[in-house]
């Protein structure tokens, strides 16, 4: 199953790639983007001040971009933690549902057995 990247994930990936400086082609291949998408995202991050272009025409992460990356990484850690918690909550719910269903089945079986016992007497 193919998992598509979110806009924020692509931006963060570009920022990671240009951390030490990178040319367009390098960014395009490393981020696995078409040229059209690369230009779109580079324009966005330049306009936002997350990236700047140095004297050698290399894209370099700007201080604002470093802050973005730090916050993004923190966000992803929290998101993953919440996903794990939600998974455990769902598993607990399923266990409770199973216990409830089994208890009802046991009670129903006991009631049938008790009724048969009374019918025999």
Describe the overall structure.
With 121 residues, the chain is mainly alpha-helical. It has one domain: Arc Repressor Mutant, subunit A (Orthogonal Bundle). A two-stranded antiparallel ribbon has the order 1-2. Helix 1 packs across helix 4. It is rod-shaped, with a radius of gyration of 28 Å. The mean pLDDT is 90.
Features:
2 strands, 75% helix, single chain, 121 residues, two-stranded antiparallel sheet, 4 helices, mainly alpha, Arc Repressor Mutant, subunit A
What's the helix and strand layout?
Layout: H1 7-17, H2 24-31, H3 35-48, E1 51-53, E2 59-61, H4 63-120
Antiparallel strand pairs: 1-2
Helix pairs in contact: 1-2, 1-4
Describe the structure concisely for a colleague.
The protein is mainly α. It is built from 4 helices and 2 strands.
Report the CATH C-level class.
Mainly Alpha
Global mean pLDDT: 90
The CATH architecture classification is Orthogonal Bundle
CATH superfamily: Winged helix-like DNA-binding domain superfamily/Winged helix DNA-binding domain
Strand tally is 2
The coarse silhouette is rod-shaped
Distance between the termini: 62 Å
Uncertain segments of ≥5 residues (pLDDT<50)? Answer: none
How are the strands of the largest sheet arranged?
1-2
* Helicity, as a percent range: over 70%
User: What is the radius of gyration computed over CA atoms, rounded to a whole number of angstroms?
Assistant: 28 Å
Number of helices: 4
């Amino acid at each position: 199953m193919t998992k598509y990247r979110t806009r924020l994930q692509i931006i963060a990936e570009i920022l990671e790639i240009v951390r030490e400086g990178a040319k367009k082609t390098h960014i395009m291949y490393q981020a696995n983007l078409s040229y059209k998408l690369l230009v779109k995202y580079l324009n966005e991050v330049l306009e936002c001040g997350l990236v700047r272009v140095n004297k050698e025409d290399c894209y370099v992460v700007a201080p604002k971009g470093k802050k973005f990356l730090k916050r993004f990484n923190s966000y992803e850690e929290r998101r993953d933690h919440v996903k794990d918690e939600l998974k455990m909550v769902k598993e607990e719910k399923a266990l409770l549902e199973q216990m409830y269903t089994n208890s009802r089945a046991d009670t129903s079986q006991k009631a049938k057995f008790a009724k048969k016992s009374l019918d025999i007497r």
